[in-house]
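Researcher: Here's a chain I'd like modeled. Treat it as a single chain, no partners, no ligands.
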Amino acid sequence: MSDYTLDELRVVMRESVGVDESVDLSGDIADVTFSDLGYDSLAVLELASQVQRAVGVPIADELALEAPSPGAFVACVNQALTEAGS
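Model: Modeled as a single isolated chain. Structure tokens:
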């Protein structure tokens, strides 16, 4: 199974969770905090739920909420994928 990418997360952020019009997701958002992108904890949990459905592996709420940025969130998803494949 291939790694989950930041570009795949951007799609979910745009289509499923939404984004404030003033936020540009096409830039380098890997290390920008979710709060700076306008995402609160509920939005991050919804993001995790949507990604879980897309990749077919569970992502613990605690793990998703500990991810401060999209880059860290992608790392959590890839960790879950690795654990599911072992």
